[in-house]
Amino acid sequence: MPDIIEIVISALLVIAGLFGLIGSYGMIKLRDTMQRLHAPTKATTIGIGSVLIASLLHNYAVQGHLSFHELLITLFLFLTAPITANFIAKTYMAKHVAEDEVPDSGRDYGWTVYDDPPMSAPDPVTDPKE
Amino acid sequence: MDGANNLLFIIAITPFIGALLPGIMIRAGRATCATFAAAPTVLALAMLAVLTPDVMAGNVIQAEVNWLPQLGLSASFFLDGLGLLFAGMILGVGLLIIIYARYYLSPEDPMGQFYTYLLLFQGAMLGIVLSDNILLLLIFWELTSLSSFLLIGFWKHLPEGRQGARMALAVTGSGGLAMIGGMLILGNIVGSYNLTDILAAGDIIKASEWYLPALILILLGAFTKSAQFPFHFWLPHAMAAPTPVSAYLHSATMVKAGVFLMARMWPALAGTPEWFYIVATTGLITMVIGALIALFKDDLKALLAFSTVSHLGLLTMLLGFGTKLAAVVAVFHIINHLTFKATLFMTAGIIDHETHTRDIKALGGLRKLMPITFVIGTVAALSMAGIPLFNGFLSKEMMLEEASHTVWAGSHHAVPILATVGALLSVAYSFRFIVHVFFGPVRDDYPSKPHDPPVGMWLSPALLMVLVVVIGVLPAAIVGPLVAVAGEAVIGGGKMPYYSLKIWHGITPALYMSIIAIIGGLLLLAMHRPLDRLWNALPRPEAKAMFDALVAAMASLSRTITETLHTGAISRYLSIFVVATVALGLIAASGSSLPPVTREMLPVPGVVLIGWVVLITAIGSVFFMHRSRFRALVMIGVIGLMISSGFVYLSAPDLALTQISVETVTIMLLLLALHFLPKDTPIESSRALRIRDGVIALIGGVGVAAMTYAFLLRDVSTISDYHLANAKTGGGGTNVVNVILVDFRGYDTYGEIIVLGVAGLIIFAVMEALLNGPAARRLRNMDYSQDRSRDRHPLMMVIATRLLMPIAVLVGAYIFLRGHNQPGGGFVAGLIISIALLMQYMASGFAWAQARQKMEYHGMIGWGVVIAGLTGTAAWLFGAPFLTSTFGYFHFPPIEEFELASAMAFDLGVFLAVLGAVMLMLYSLSRIARFAGETVNVEPMDYDPTNRVELLKEDD
């Protein structure tokens, strides 16, 4: 294995560990849920991303074959992490933030957490009895 | 003789096979349905006719197939004179009833169902009279109870029908249970369950000290079936059945089963004083009481029912006398009673059908309006009264003759006098039937204008009426041989007593008794009006009320016992279970020492230590946070994931896959359920109780840990070695876990998917019941709107799950296909697909998602079990045992060579059952949500940006 690749892989792993640690530390350090939401993003993006790139490189350069597992993991991570964060934030707001504490949405309709969605035509597929 | 043996088998099973036809043939019309119901009966009759000459010559035809020889149970049948008589009656009357019912049943009645039940009953009855094994006989005996339950309750919409059916089942069924005991004792005494052996061992039985208990238990069965006092009360209530059923079951067949049994067992049991006093006395009392009640019944069918009770009493009494001549008379009267009583029942059915009433007080004068019915009914009733020239007279004369010289407890008069009274009452009610129904002035207030029914309806009773007269005039010529051969079978060989079937026996005591009975009966009828008033004024015990009270008492007793043992406190059950298990373990371990330790402790790597600490912390958190349910659930999820990681670390990918998917599904469903439950567990038990439970839990946990520790330190030879060695060669798979599941232990898996499916269905059913009760009202009053986001179906979640769906399905298919050789399989695949679906339901709401798929989850469970079962049974086609699997390798270019195993089809069944069960559980939970006011969204997501743009445009 060329040294340069070895160095790159090692550097990526160290970066990954660092950002993982920073993310975890942030979870403890930051004050409330909304702030804490920011900390794990470091761990999931740069942290895990670096590990995946390192693994990709390692597989290609050392094992001699291309691996798609890392790509899939990235895909799922990018799919699930925002949704999780979105849900946590929504739940927090519904539980702890009153409607008058948030600024006006500036549109015809209010924020989704507090206001009912705009009405639309009935759906023909849904059971008409209900 | 071989052909004859086979024929006997075919006769016995023909009605059962035939029972399959009418239910299908009803689609081709009522006439076709009746034809297909009659066909098996005709066939069986024809085959019986082939065997008849042989039996009449005095031979006994036997056929035997070993069934469960270890239990002494064999499917053996035999046909002797008695069997021939009864089989002929069952099939012959059955045929007439099928014809009659074709015209009797109204178009609204499900005729196919009726004929199916009728043929089932016919088969059961035929089984009783042909069985040569008492265990087999017992099976058929209970089958008659069950099928008669269906027939009596045929009109399910009538409460009388349902209650009558239940009463009949309770009484005859419990009698049957008693009889099982009696028969087992009998079999034990003789050392064989074969009827022929038992009949030959009469002396051994009577000398045994177990004779009396066996006798009483068997007689309980016979008396309940034949409606003997004090069990007679069910028969009148069973009259709620359609009249063809009454005519068939309650004149010719079912109630005669008890009499048949007494006749069958006569050589083995009769002849002792115990037999005489129990059987003859019961019969005598039943005869008189039944006749007395019959006289004052206004319902035509009730009158006939009690007269049947009375005549069954007569038969029982005759068999109870214990003399050979009396037994032969009983056989003769069985034939006579059948002919006139079936005719009378059908006549009553015709009257009911045409006038729409069975109340004697509302009838009268039908002689002019329904001349044919009048002739038929009158002839039969005269026979029942015992008037000369009709067959009833002959057997009644012979009965009185027998009674006249029977001594009861030293008294020479008791039996003759009571027998005469019975005959007298019988004359009275028979004439009441004729006079009050057919004679008198024509009324103008019948509920319906009466006239004679179509030919099909009066044909059957007319045929039987002809028999009544012909036997009455020429008894010896018509039924003489049959009575002889059947009587011989009853008395079990030996010399036949002298008797003669003829009208004029000379001036005998019986003649005087007969004359007294007829004159007295007519006098009684003349005084019927004042007597009826007197009867109605007298207090009488009401059998139904007593029966209902008894049933209620039994139900409350069993409820008390159940509720004492099952308090509903799960902590109590668990503590009993844990303590018992620990105690058993200690008992097993005491007195033995452990073998020496053969394995060394492994070093603890850092990763394992961290995992272990996380696991222990999570478990500890559950312990401290279990009163806050959501937090506990999160911690349980952590535990599950740690255990999965453990499986991965220990190279058990199959278990890890299963654990992760089970964990996901479980947590999702628990979260859904928890939504409708209190979020905190209140402290309910006292401190002492909690300490006790804690100690028990600790003991259990320490016990399990110690056992695991002890096992892990020692080399134990396990069955795993066998599985590892044979998975590839025997099951064709390299994934040993999967091969174990679908092949080695396929039977277990088959059972488990059934259990899983049943659990899913039970959750569905319980939810259904729950949502019809007070819980539904509580749910409706709940308000979840406050703690909930208005955005129930967020855009991001909806889009992401849509994207994930095809990927997840692909993964599921992949996991399923590779299951046999690599980690995976139907179970995991089912869970993965259900998670994929669960995500859709979570994202867009249950109703929205449900409306967009066409699968029926109930059906999916069923198909899963069916496919797995069929795969198993397919092995039979190749002569291999159930669930034997096979596999082969195939090569279709350009695809690489691949393997197909029959186990894969089995795995497909597992997959479907798992998927169906999980989704059905979700469905059940979502039903709660609907009751709790959850509305149905019409859009997949609440804030659809594209939609909003359009709405904004509309606003402008």
Automatic annotation (TrEMBL), chain A:
The entry's keywords: Membrane, Transmembrane, Transmembrane helix
Stretch list, region Disordered: 102-130
Keyword Membrane: yes
Regions crossing the membrane: 6-28, 40-62, 68-89
GO MF terms, alphabetically ordered: sodium:proton antiporter activity
InterPro entries in the cross-refs: PhaG_MnhG_YufB (IPR005133)
Domain of life, per lineage: Bacteria
NCBIfam families: CPA3_mnhG_phaG, PRK12674.1-5
Name the UniProt record assigns to this protein: Na+/H+ antiporter subunit G
TrEMBL record, chain B:
Gene Ontology terms: cellular component: plasma membrane
Transmembrane segments: 6-26, 33-51, 71-100, 112-130, 136-155, 167-190, 210-235, 275-296, 303-321, 327-351, 372-394, 414-435, 456-483, 503-526, 573-594, 606-625, 632-650, 656-674, 695-712, 753-773, 794-815, 827-849, 861-883, 903-923
GO BP term, pick one: monoatomic ion transport
Single GO MF descriptor: antiporter activity
Record domain MrpA C-terminal/MbhD: where: 616-679
InterPro entries, A to Z: CPA3_Na-H_Antiporter_A (IPR050616), MnhB (IPR007182), MrpA_C/MbhD (IPR025383), MrpA_C/MbhE (IPR046806), ND/Mrp_TM (IPR001750), Proton_antipo_N (IPR001516)
Residues in MrpA C-terminal/MbhE domain copies: 690-768
Main location: membrane
Family annotation (Pfam families): MbhD, MbhE, MnhB, Proton_antipo_M, Proton_antipo_N
Protein name: Monovalent cation/H+ antiporter subunit A
Domain of life: Bacteria
Reported function: NDH-1 shuttles electrons from NADH, via FMN and iron-sulfur (Fe-S) centers, to quinones in the respiratory chain. The immediate electron acceptor for the enzyme in this species is believed to be ubiquinone. Couples the redox reaction to proton translocation (for every two electrons transferred, four hydrogen ions are translocated across the cytoplasmic membrane), and thus conserves the redox energy in a proton gradient.
Start and end residues of each NADH-Ubiquinone oxidoreductase (complex I) chain 5 N-terminal domain: 70-114
Entries under PANTHER family matching the protein: NA(+)/H(+) ANTIPORTER SUBUNIT, NA(+)_H(+) ANTIPORTER SUBUNIT A
NADH:quinone oxidoreductase/Mrp antiporter transmembrane domain: residues covered: 131-405
Keywords: Antiport, Cell membrane, Ion transport, Membrane, Transmembrane, Transmembrane helix, Transport
